[in-house]
Write a structure and sequence with these properties.
Length: 294
Amino acid sequence: PDPEAIWGAVEGLKEALALHLADLAPALYDAMRVTGPYIPDAEQSGKRALGNAMLGLIARRDGGELAARQYAEADNMTLTLAALACLLRAGKGGPELAAFHERWQDDRLVMDKWFGLQIMEATPEAAVETARRLTGHPAFDMKNPNRFRAVLGALAGHHAGFHRADGAGYALLADWLIRLDPANPPTAARMTTAFQTWRRYDPGRQADARAAPAPAGGGPPATAGSRRRSPPPARAPRSRCWAGRPTGSRARSPRSTTPATRSSSTATATWPVPTPATTWPTRTRLLFTSPSPP
């Protein structure tokens, strides 16, 4: 696939919808406004969803004027984030971003949305630079998995931005995965899945993806397992026996006091001791070590 072509086609479709529904969208937006107290029920949620969809189309025609008004009047997070997203998409929203940060800076989960939204609504050309800038924010902490995913995960989810033709998205994510790996291997391992689809892209992007795990400043390469721990030792199979009886023997009579070994007139049956379990080797696999497709 061509990420930039897909992005352009989607944006073109949205522009066409905004033009086609230029008269209907404002009326439908007004009809979906909820004037009563906030209630998280199906009826109000449906109205907010449809109203925000119309707001996205209107913002393409009015430059975000209605979105700014909704942000100022919003009394819940759904309307606030939808308005902020429309403003960012229109290339505006600076004062609103500052106000959001001032109000919610002490709520880490809400601030995760503040971080992620700026990247998700950026253009493909600006997504990498936006993510790089946000990694320098004082509130960015790579050891916080939610914050790391809010920034670098949002970049990986920005299809056209992450798969930029110059490979800048690959390089930025790989560099941060290498930094994170010693501190939080599980999160680093999960985030490497952003590279799993590298074979689907053109040779240039494949080459950039293969080169991405090598950090500019040297150091160990990023791994698919990201220093994955060794699996636990293999257990010996459990004997299917009851009260010391071998597999297949009939149940012991309730009156029986037969010990763990069964004696008979001819022989005494003893059960073999399982051999010690072997330890599995560490399975650490480098990214992109498989051969290139023909």
